[in-house]
Structures are given as structure tokens and as C-alpha cells.
Amino acid sequence: MPQCKESQTASSAELSAIPPTTTSWQSELLHRQFFQKRRRFPWPAVLWLLFIIIGCLAAPLIANHDPAHFYLHHLSEAPNQKFYFGTDALGRDIYSSIWYGGRLSLGIGVLSMLVSTGLGVLYGALSGLASRIVDTVLMRTAEILSSIPSLLLMILCLAFVPSPSPISIALIIGGTTWMNLARIVRSEVCHIKNSDYVWAARFMGAGPLYILRYHLWPSIWSPIMFMVVSSIGSAILMESTLSFLGLGLSVDVISWGTMLSLANRALLTNAWWVILIPGIFLVITLLSITRLGYYIRRQLNRGCSNL
């Protein structure tokens, strides 16, 4: 019996010393490599955005035609050596319109981002710092507005604008998309407003705006950074949607949205390049902005966790 126990103990020790199987080791290695790749810097997204930004800024140098000129003898012409991306139903050069229209679309996205970020941060911070009754009223108002589809709010606001301009479109988009950001800011402010340094600032006579600027803003930057970056892409998409529906900019104003507004005519004439080429630029730009936003949020969260 003692010999049997010793043999069983020896066999169990030998089994525990055996390394894991090759299959489990390879799966673990692949698992680590997969997540390491996901943590890498999004070079394709950044390079694409740089390519678009540089191309839009250098539009007068790289455009080979006047984007606002109607080449009536070349209506809906396929891509060729003269018109690299073809022409639309109005005879405008799509290649030149891509770069000039990208200027306007990116400008609308950045301006609407600034408007929505300013409104969302200020509204959410004031709601979090206010009394319970004021906080309840402000948050119920934001929840009611956020329950309405943003596209419907934009259409309602555009009804009061006789001739929409790029600035008015950006202000309307930014003024109707700040509610979710305000709720996130308010939750972060409520989480940190009872900290020692905030109480010390209050006892020293600091007002809400001072506390927001010097104490709360550095703490709420990380949670809202993803929404701030992704709001640029959302604004570009909203502008394209409004122009596609015929409610945004007029056709004579060149943007990626107004270029896609001619999609119904392109489908009837089988002019695939009118839809495909601007759509590719728009989709890849939106995906690049979203990918960059995910990376920034992950890096900020990692930096906060290391503190």
C-alpha cells in the first residue's frame, strides 16, 4: 500500500510537470497577438485623414477643373483621362468636387463638434453642480430632447431657415446633438464633485465656472473624448443625409452631401461613379474618424488607470 501511494504521488507530480499542450499554447499566443494588434496605433486611419485634409487644403493645386463649372457637353460621363472620376448629371467634374466639397464637409463637422461639445459640457457640468431640483429639471429636459430623433429635430429647425448655409447647418447639427454628451458629463461631475479638492475650492469661494475649468474639466476629458472625436463624423454624416433628402445645402454648394444628392438621377442613368466614388470617400473618412476616436479613448482610459 505505501508503494502504491508513492507511485500515485510520483505520477501526479509528473503530470503536473508536463507543459500545456501545443494547441492551448498556440491559441493563447494567437489571443495575445490579436489584442496586441488591436492596441496598436491606427496608422491607416490617421494616414487616410491626413491624405484627405492635405488634399482638401491643396485643392486649388491638385484640381484639374473648376468644380462649379457645368460642362454641358460631358453630362454623366464615365471616368476617363480628362475627368479622372467622371462627371455628374450637371456636368461637374467629380474629382475636383471631391476636394473642394471635402473642405466644406470637414468644416461643417468641426464647427458642429465645437458647438455640441461646448453646449454638452457646459449644460452637463452646471446640472451636476446645481441643486437637486435644478438638476432634475435640467436632466428631464435633456432626456425629453434626446428622446426625439435628432434628424427630426434638425428638419424642424431647418423649417425656420429659408436658405440654409454651411454655418447654419453646422449650428443646427451641433445644437441638436449635445444631449447625450451632457448626460455623460453630468454623471462624471456627480461622481467627483464630492471629492476633497472640490470641497476645498468651494470653501475658498470658488464659483461653478471656476470649479468646472480648473477641477472638473481635466477629470471629465477622458470619458467624453471619444464622443467629441466621433461627433465630427456624425456631423458629416448628418449633413450628407440632409443634403441627400433635399433639406440641406443647395445643389450649387459643393459638399460630399450635395454630391450624393444626385444619386437618384445616377441610378436612373446607370452612372455608378456618381454614387460610388463620393460614397467611398465619405465612408472611409467616417470609419477613420471612429477608429481614431476609439484609440484615443483607450489611451486616455489606460493613462487614468495607471495614475
Automatic annotation (TrEMBL):
Residue runs in coiled coils: none
PANTHER family assigned to the protein according to its UniProt record, in alphabetical order: D,D-DIPEPTIDE TRANSPORT SYSTEM PERMEASE PROTEIN DDPC-RELATED, OLIGOPEPTIDE TRANSPORT SYSTEM PERMEASE PROTEIN APPC
Source organism (scientific name): Veillonella magna
Family the UniProt entry places it in: Belongs to the binding-protein-dependent transport system permease family.
UniProt entry tagged with the keyword Transmembrane helix: yes
Membrane topology: Multi-pass membrane protein
Domain of life: Bacteria
Localization, UniProt: Cell membrane
Membrane-spanning residues: 41-63, 106-130, 220-237, 244-264, 270-289
Keyword line: Cell membrane, Membrane, Transmembrane, Transmembrane helix, Transport
Residue span, ABC transmembrane type-1 domain: 102-293
Name of the protein in its database record: ABC transporter permease
Cross-referenced Pfam families: BPD_transp_1 (PF00528)
